[in-house]
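User: For my dataset I need records formatted as: sequence, then structure tokens, nothing else. Please produce one.
Assistant:
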Amino acid sequence: MSGDSSMNAKATVAANIASAMERHALPDSRFQLDFSQFIPDFPGSDAAARRLTADTAYQRARYLFVTPDNALNSFRRQAIADGKTMLVPTYGLHRGFLLVDPKTVPLGHEMYAAWLDGIEHFGRLESLIDLERRGRIDLIVAGASAVNVDGLRFGMGHRYLDIEWGILAEVGSVHDSVPIATIVHDAQYTSENMPVDSDDILADIIVTPTRTVRAPSRPRPSCLNWKLIDRAMTETPPLRELQDRLKVQSHP
């Protein structure tokens, strides 16, 4: 399949899934049901969160990377209640990464701390040096507009995780064996096979309200592909810091 054909196939399936999700999605307070702007929450996301938190990969994890998608509100709440430390990227990486230490969240405030405004309140910004010192992440949990049987996330926002992985790989925070999970509605899961690019970060664990699907693990990039970065994103704090680090490394 040619590159254009592959992109068209993904776009068609993503559009069909978005149409189906209009019957299930919960509107966003800012973007309503504009799925080009956000990944929606849905009835049953709490059941999917319970399914994931019962998984061995979650039970063993202490330090999580969790995307700021609406569909993960219930999961983030439970992670805080369970005493997990979470690293959450800010929207579009405009201000980098926020670390939420569960010890700073008062009992009974877990749900508020899981929402984006609460993450802003309780989280603190982490530099790449901070992340390097903190060590390796135990589990990644991401939302998805759509995901297929191979764990390929596609549709709105899928490239952000590819970029975030690349940044974290550059500072040693992630590695090939770290599990990656995604929580989606059953309507967002497809058995369609699609070509995988070398920079696609695939999910190993696909969780819906009704089932858990295991996808085969594949090698992941060990560094950031700068071709994924547009001009505006190069001005975000983590990418400016990473560029400065790479300049120093290339001119010792």
